[in-house]
């Protein structure tokens, strides 16, 4: 996109701040997942964040970095590029969570594959993902496809809309 997607404004504030407000009622704490460059640019506004701990370019970096921060926690993961996400989908995840599975996620917008960037990851996922990374597999979707996970149908598929480029952003804000 050429800019930090978490800083895009959809609801009169940067998306990452909007997501903190959305998630706060459901979480003991809400963390931003940031790379080292983003961390260096953050001012002390009191918002906790977790810096990517691995030298990989994958959403797994943020997920595994969260587990390094607290390996016993189940982590609710929400991508910053889903501006249509509402509490309805968050509540569906929480209500239908299966902690005996490695993760609880929705099917993606095609209804065929897991959507890895909106889900709850259980502590046991960390070891599986660490092994996958060691084997060179950096796709969280592929890991989810090969493991026992709870797959749900999202209440409104539009909430999974990803905005990853300027064309998609302009189409959304029209």
TrEMBL record:
Record's signal peptide? none
| Listed GO MF terms | GTP binding; metal ion binding; nucleotidyltransferase activity
Question: What does the record list as GO biological process?
Answer: Mo-molybdopterin cofactor biosynthetic process
Which residue numbers delimit the MobA-like NTP transferase domain? Answer: 1-147
The residue ranges crossing the membrane are none
Alphabetical keyword list: Cytoplasm, GTP-binding, Magnesium, Metal-binding, Molybdenum cofactor biosynthesis, Nucleotide-binding, Nucleotidyltransferase, Transferase
Name assigned to this protein: Molybdenum cofactor guanylyltransferase
């Amino acid at each position: 996109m050429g800019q930090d997607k978490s800083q895009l404004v959809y609801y009169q504030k940067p998306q990452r701040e909007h997501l903190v407000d959305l998630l706060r009622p459901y979480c003991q704490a809400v963390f931003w997942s940031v790379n080292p460059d983003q961390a260096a640019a953050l001012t002390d506004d009191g918002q906790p964040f977790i810096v990517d701990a691995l030298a990989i370019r994958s959403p797994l970096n943020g997920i595994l970095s969260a587990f390094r921060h607290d390996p016993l926690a189940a982590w609710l993961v929400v991508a910053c590029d889903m501006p249509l996400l509402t509490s309805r989908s968050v509540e569906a995840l929480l209500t239908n969570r299966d902690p005996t599975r490695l993760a609880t996620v929705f099917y993606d917008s095609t209804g065929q594959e897991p959507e890895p960037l909106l889900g709850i990851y259980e502590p046991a996922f960390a070891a599986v993902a660490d092994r996958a990374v060691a084997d060179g597999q950096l796709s969280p979707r592929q890991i989810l496809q090969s493991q026992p996970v709870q797959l749900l149908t999202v209440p409104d598929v539009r909430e999974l809309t990803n905005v990853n480029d300027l064309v998609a952003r302009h189409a959304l804000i029209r």
